[in-house]
Amino acid sequence: ASQARGGSFATIWIISDIDKAPCKTQFFLLQAMARRIIHVDNRPSQLPEFHRIIASRSSQGNGKMLSCLLDYFLMEIPGSIFFAEQHIFLHENRNPSRIPMVEWLHIEDLKSFDTHVPIDLELMGFARDIVVALRHDCQVQIGPSVLARTHFRDVLKIRALLRASDFVKPHDFPSVASLVLSHRITTKGGLDKFPRSVVREVVFRLANKTLLPPK
């Protein structure tokens, strides 16, 4: 395990290709992520407050994932490719002996990122409006819970953090909304649309009304 020095910096642990792990392993990983506990050389370590654990799935995305774990899922592409494009130094630990239960996964350690990413009040209202609109959309049978707004906001902040952006930007809303909210809704029977399509329709419809068009 490694730690960043300095009060305004953080270490982010990214568990990649998590959909390749069995559901039981995913459950244990979810518990560890929630408690910020990692194992190095078979010794448990509690991560400090300024550490964050998130997950991504493989580029194919064919593996089954626990629905509760999808709140942590952020990226469609492997983290190593994403970060390489951003010219950010990345250290990969692929030693399977350290995590014998998760031989398909690897942990990537990213240092020196500020965890305090601001969201404009207008954009926070936009995120709230998206969740409310999905709860009342005529195409949706069961909408997202009120807690979805918090997860939506957190993922927006993490996405900005990983892109080395100083703040959340409007163009992140369509992709993040699809990832965070699509698994939280059930469309009405007989509707020939995927939940992601419904979410994106709602996002762009609201964007046109609020003059915040995501590009």
UniProtKB/TrEMBL annotation:
- Enumerate the transmembrane spans: none
EC numbers: 6.6.1.1
Q: What class of enzyme is it?
A: ligase
Task: Supply the Pfam families for this chain.
Answer: AAA_lid_2 (PF17863)
Its annotated pathway reads:
Porphyrin-containing compound metabolism
GO molecular function annotations of the record = magnesium chelatase activity
Could you tell me which residue ranges the ChlI/MoxR AAA lid domain spans?
Answer: 133-188
Q: What InterPro entries does the annotation carry?
A: ChlI/MoxR_AAA_lid, Nucleic_acid_metab_PIN/TRAM
Locate the coiled-coil region(s) and give their ranges.
none
Question: Mind telling me what this protein is named?
Answer: magnesium chelatase
